[in-house]
Amino acid sequence: MKSIIIALALLATSLTGWAQTINDVFKKFKEMENVTYVNIPKSVVGMALKSAGKDTVANWADKIDAIQILSLEEASVSTKQLFNAEVKKLDTSGYEDMIKVNSEGEKVRILTKGTEKIINSLIIFAIDENDCALVKIDGRIAPDDVNAIVDNQTRN
């Protein structure tokens, strides 16, 4: 009985070792060859969004603290395959699926973390056979703002 409990404890420990956070994925891939990593701080986000001229976008300027973007468009096939494998092992506890699309070889998943009234973190995965991208937006965003952008993009 004692050996079974020890084995289960070791199994649980090893399984949690496989799980990784969003930040772990950024750290692992941002230095890889032909992977583009961009970290945009609040001051730059604010300037860029306010100068965009569109009210919908400009309203986000004070709500976003930072944006991180990881693009694997130019990365090797093996790097993209590794990215897909790492995303599958991702620990998304604390996040909720907002959108999950699998259409014509393209997979898009949007996860949110926060409350009913405020989203503190928005994660976007976009994966197809030629490109992989990961976007993380931190801030204090109203869910209605995200829905408005998604509705606008799906209509066009």
TrEMBL record:
Residues 1-19 form the signal peptide. The keyword Signal applies. InterPro entries: DUF4252 (IPR025348). Keywords: Signal. It comes from the Bacteria. This is DUF4252 domain-containing protein.
